[in-house]
Amino acid sequence: MNNVTQEVRYGIIGCGMMGQEHLRNIALLPGARVTRIFEPDDAMAAGSLALTTGALRAASLAEVVSSPDVDCLLIASPNYCHADQLRLIASIRPLPVLLEKPACTQLSDVRELAELITNYPAPVWVAMEYRYMPPVARLTEEVHCGKDIGGLTMLSIREHRFPFLVKVGDWNRFNRYTGGTLVEKCCHFFDLMRHMVRSEPIRIYASAGVDHNHLDERYPDGTPDILDNAYVVVDFAGGQRALLELCMFAEGSRYQEEITVVGPLGKAECFVPGPGRFWPADLGVPPVPKVIISPRHPKGPRELEVPVDPVALAAGDHNGSTLYQHQRFNAVVRGKGVIEVSLADGLAAVLMGLAAQESARTGQAMSLVEGDFSLKGLSSKH
């Protein structure tokens, strides 16, 4: 554990769209400063340096990791780079790491990283921002409290959103670079399932397609093959079941995410709007996130608005969650907090995504307790 007690100095690996969101949020942390940035794309590097004060552009990842003015690292590079970069960091100087999701994109990397973390002497936190969205966090509290719903029996997550955005080199158009949509995008939701249910998944089935998005685009790698819609059903060891409904051509929706939990005593829901910058100005003020609690007895839904701090909201596209996540990671680096999303959690979400991708390809349900996609061997807190 790093014994930093004053200023925490960050080295950034990858400063594209998400990396720059992290930069804006680090700037809001007292006693935090970015000192080194490794970003191969000149335009993205220039934009990133403009968001910092005094940071230097590094020529390599190794230069960032070796710099004496770096106390911790943020990895926000393209998905397919994460595993190799984490291995390289471990070999040079194992600093505390905030690792953007997904932790990796290939089955072989899951086992290697699970082994690596057993000897890694510093904390590794996987950036699962959705846990920290205020309405989602409020819903999770309701689930774990159990007062109004009496425990979780069914969980449904619906995301109706915009297509994948343009990124440097368009790497996010292909399964080979992203791990597939059910890894790249949906690892967030598989993590939420495990987090809310507090049990391990045992089986997963997916039906998905590439029906509308990016089909008229052409690249040296060919036509994009990323899924743009899916249903995924997950069975858990405790008897609970969960459903993910993803549609990436539904950006006209009022809310981007709708999450519903049902138990023997009632139902609880949360509604999360998409990024405010995409809300049409002619429709007025963007919707406010909310939670609705609907007990069976006595009947009568209770609707609670869960507004997000405007400063945190303006710093990114994830309903303030990036800031709240950084506050907790910063505390860990200072030796004053605990890891809430471990690398094992991140790897479990990747395995669920890879299994869902394979299920969608084959039309068969995939076991998560035996075979290639078994979660056995990953440490668990559940």
Describe it:
The chain has 382 residues and is of the alpha/beta class. The chain has 2 domains: 8-129, NAD(P)-binding Rossmann-like Domain (Rossmann fold, 3-Layer(aba) Sandwich); 133-309 and 343-367, 2-Layer Sandwich (Dihydrodipicolinate Reductase, domain 2), CATH 3.30.360.10. 30% of the residues lie in helices and 22% in strands. The chain has 12 helices and 15 strands. The strands form 2 sheets. The protein has a 9-stranded mixed β-sheet with strand order 14-13-12-11-7-10-9-8-15. Strands 3-2-1-4-5-6 form a 6-stranded parallel β-sheet, sandwiched between helices. Strand 1 (8-13), helix 1 (17-26) and strand 2 (32-38) form a beta-alpha-beta unit. Helix 5 packs antiparallel against helix 12 (343-362) and helix 9 (187-197) crosses helix 12 (343-362). The radius of gyration is 20 Å and the shape is globular. 47% of the residues are buried. The model has no long low-confidence stretch (mean pLDDT 93).
